[in-house]
Amino acid sequence: MPKQVKKNGRNNQVSPADQKKSTITFVNDDKCSIKSEESSPILENDEKTVIPHSGKKRTYEDEEAGGDFGLEMQKMLEMFGADISKTLSTKKKRLEHFTQLSLKTTGKKVEEILTAQQNERTRLQEEYCKQAESVFQQWENDIDKIKEQEEKLTNLFKQQQKLFQQSRIIQGQRLKTIRQLNEQFIKSVDELDKSHINQQNSLQLELKKEMALLQKRILMDMVRAVH
User: Fold this and answer.
1) Is pTM, for the whole model, over 0.85?
2) What angle do CA 191, 194, 195 make, to 5 degrees?
3) What pLDDT score does 22 carry?
4) What are the contacts of 102-109 at 24+ separation with CB within 8 A?
């Protein structure tokens, strides 16, 4: 509190030591800073307060202005927080969109490759079954013919022996054909497996690239969100 000076019947004078006053400036957060300044006291009537020139009393308008400033700061902080939440929500939605799009594209590619592989296997198996069935059908027909010839040529041994030899040759050819078809089928299956493995490796590489690109986008979005 500033000192109070009373009249003594003549002009009051203040010593230089009394001219150095400690003024207290209050701020909104109830902290105060003390400043030592040179002030010229103003002497008025009896029991008047000496107010330094540099000192300033807090008025109702100052307190109201301080309260308005606090409200403005609070609103500004709330708006800033809302902007951050909105930005994070937008980034999250973009990330979810990128992830869903990448998964959808990858799933479509995988489904197409698996379907193509299944179709190739089915075509190869159908072709093999068709050829093998044709050979077996011919074989069965040959056997039926042999039986008929055996019944007819029971009394003709030589002719039967010759026919038997011919039958053996034919059966050997059929067996050779079956072996060739079997070897060709195994070879085709091996080549198809190698081709499918290469396709799967290529797909894995594409998936790794897609994941790397997705991670890069995520990192870029995070960096943008931070800045």
Assistant:
1) no
2) 85
3) 37
4) 102/210, 102/211, 102/213, 102/214, 105/210, 106/207, 106/210, 109/203, 109/206
